[in-house]
Design goal:
The complex is a heterodimer of chains A (167) and B (345).
Chain A lengths: L2 H20 L2 H17 L1 H4 L5 H22 L6 H8 L7 H14 L3 H11 L5 H8 L3 H28 L1
Chain B lengths: L3 H12 L5 H24 L45 E4 L2 E3 L7 E7 L11 E6 L6 E7 L10 E5 L2 E6 L6 E9 L2 E8 L7 H8 L1 E3 L4 E4 L1 E2 L9 E9 L4 E8 L10 E8 H4 L13 E5 L2 E7 L2 E5 L4 E7 L3 H10 L1 E2 L12
Classes of the chains: A mainly alpha (167), B alpha+beta (345).
Chain lengths: 167, 345
Amino acid sequence: LTFDEFLGARLVSLLRYATVVTCDPHLAEDIVQEVLIRTQQRWARISDVEQPEAYVKRMILNHFLSWRRRRDARALPLPAAAVEAATGAGADCSARVVERHALLGQIAALPPRQRAVIALRYYEDRSDAEIAALLGCSEATVRSHCSQALAALRTSTRLMEASSDHR
Amino acid sequence: VITDDSIRDALEHLAQHAPDPDRVLLGLAGRDRARRQRRALTIAGGAVAAGVAVGGPLVLLRDRHPAGPAGVAGPSARPSPSSSPSIVNDRIPMRYRPTWLPDGMREISRIAGPFSPDSDPRQQIRTWRVGTGGQSVQLQVGGADSVDTAGLRHTTVRGAAGWVDQRSGRPSVGVIWQPQPGVWLQVVVEGVAPGSTTVPLRVANSVTPDGSSMLEVPVAFGWLPDGITRAAQRTVASTAHGWESLVAADDGKGPVGAPVGVSATLGTAADVLVLNQKPGSTQSPGSTTARGVAATFVSPHILMVALPDGLGLRVAGEASQADLVRVADALRIGPVPDLSWLATG
């Protein structure tokens, strides 16, 4: 498998994965490009691993988490505008779109590792063991991240519903 | 109520808004090329002025245009070694200029030519900077057919629709607009306070057609290896001790395959002929003759030649050493151009 063949077969999948993990298509584009340049440099070695795509996805995840650490250190705002642009909530105000938009906004607001667990479990359908291997932590930690994330999402939803009822 | 299905639905919907793979491939080719250029130039020392972010902020100027030959002699051209002052330098009119810049800004580089395979051969970048590490302004000119403005904020620049690119995680603010059909301009300011668009918008609103500034390049290819037929960048930039001018050409292949090319850099010897060898490197220089004088291969792909009048020449590329010598011999080198516009030292 050459690097070009790998790109031809898996680039779309990598971009979708990065978009879900980052909740920001622009950031996903940047991260995928940077990771693919590194991948190209090391392709002889990466192509020998059992699942090159999984290896590259782990690189994307690590790159995102390290980027988040650098970004959080500067306390920049969350990419709410990017989520809004991606979900198209501004153009379609049906109830389902509004709910989906709100949910994505809440997911985007999760701490990065919790968000990664949600993306890996619900988009990639990964097991706890696989997620633990990708994140370099224990399965118990994965379950903890997941339960905390779901609790945060449900709390946010209840608060929004209460706020809506109040109005 | 949040359910597993509602989370899956939301994430699947988000995934459908993933970036365009074709655009990513173009960007990938451009980034790889810039990375390899920076690496080669760093190894050779000096280089195009630090901070001329070739390929960095050009997100909005990616394009698909037919490659243009633009003055590069083909492989069949015969070598004609010369450094005659009678040679007329290439003069490329700069298309736009800002009429306002922050105090203390001096122009440090002019670049013309495509930055990635299939990009507009008429792309240009001019860069101004305060001091050596302060705020910088870039004016980029491109001819993109369409621009991805998703996520950008609307604005107006000289009566035309424009967009402010202030994406989180980027240390710069960009303003892009279309002054006329087929032409896109982008001002990128680095070093602004977070959230501030005052300086970028003021610079953008001051941009007008230039009509007088020139990029005068004193070096041109006379022969190129087989397959390398496309003109890439031509540059004049300030360096630590003076100036340097770079011309580059490549095979024009892409977007995924990294283009193969050669470059020639003429300029102040103290910058052009410096070798910043990595600690522990066992690379030993190799002697040869180029342009009738002693020359040195400081690496298998970088040839350095000391020229009269304090000038130096560096020829680098992914070609055989014999071909790199032939490229050096065939270069047309003209007189040092008027560099009164360039901040030096």
